[in-house]
Amino acid sequence: xxxxxxxxxxxxxxxxxxxxxxxxxxxxxxxxxxxxxxxxxxxxxxxxxxxxxxxxxxxxxxxxxxxxxxxxxxxxxxxxxxxxxxxxxxxxxxxxxxxxxxxxxxxxxxxxxxxxxxxxxxxxxxxxxxxxxxxxxxxxxxxxxxxxxxxxxxxxxxxxxxxxxxxxxxxxxxxxxxxxxxxxxxxxxxxxxxxxxxxxxxxxxxxxxxxxxxxxxxxxxxxxxxxxxxxxxxxxxxxxxxxxxxxxxxxxxxxxxxxxxxxxxxxxxxxxxxxxxxxxxxxxxxxxxxxxxxxxxxxxxxxxxxxxxxxxxxxxxxxxxxxxxxxxxxxxxxxxxxxxxxxxxxxxxxxxxxxxxxxxxxxxxxxxxxxxxxxxxxxxxxxxxxxxxxxxxxxxxxxxxxxxxx
Length: 406
Prior knowledge:
The protein is mainly alpha-helical. It has helices at about 1-10, 15-30, 40-65, 75-100, 120-130, 135-140, 145-155, 165-185, 185-200, 210-235, 240-260, 260-275, 280-295, 295-315, 320-335, 345-350, 360-370, 370-400. The longest helix is centred in the C-terminal third of the chain and has 30 residues, at about 370-400. The protein is globular and about 65 Å long. GO terms for molecular function: neutral L-amino acid:sodium symporter activity.
């Protein structure tokens, strides 16, 4: 038994996760009733990641900023440009795909128990209010915009503090990072429980009626991940982008796919950035920020489902309006994390651009909830893996300019 466990832990984490994934699928297909208790592993894994992420981000950012020396280079400007560019291009890809492969839906009853935001101004207002949220409340609710703002402020005010104070902050952030490694070591069990829960409770039968819609949604996200993002990365680093792209998808995207939570995947992304040898001062800020504003997957969801409503109702759309939709979807997606319900509840906002009644738009939201098992998984995988991808791209581009081998 000891030799077996020793051999197990010698395998890479990705291989162990894949093993957990396969076991979860087999159990869900063969003995779903008997194996049902293993779902607790998934709940515990996601719960642990969500619990540690807010406090990890707070101390990492505060420590990094407090010890940041004047004139020290960071790549935050480039990272933010990449985030915004990637989100807009994802929305544009979704709009083009929706015109090439128009989808119509059979609408039923509306979604009565959710409330969508009234406009872009409301979304941005909520985003700004999150910046000045009560710091304890921000930590409790995992409001990463608020956590970032207060951590940055604390870090700046501690720049002139005693060395012992900065050392304490650094020690706490190091300890939290080690705690994250311990939690991530249980990822194979967590993924096994999560995939078992999805397959045994939802199955795939309920999704077959929305096959074309899912094909367009998932096709767009895969195109962004495997074509658009590699082109962006190549332009910046001038070398083969696919090793970096595939590593981010493999080590960040897989866990994000099954946890379906960008917040829960923040510790995973932090660990991956460290393994890639990236600057801690940059990624300690860029990763939690990316979980809030880098929303390529959300932009795809908003665009595709909005245009599905447009095609269903037979509303004519010109190129100019479609371009405006891309911009609106990108802006809205950046505020998705500050809105209850995420990207799906921003569909009525985008639909209003075409004069679609709110009750009809909310029926599209209802369709989104039905296909959410796959839609949300692919969306989160794209969003979260791209956080690391663009953080690494910005730093590698800077190294290339300095003549340092990537």
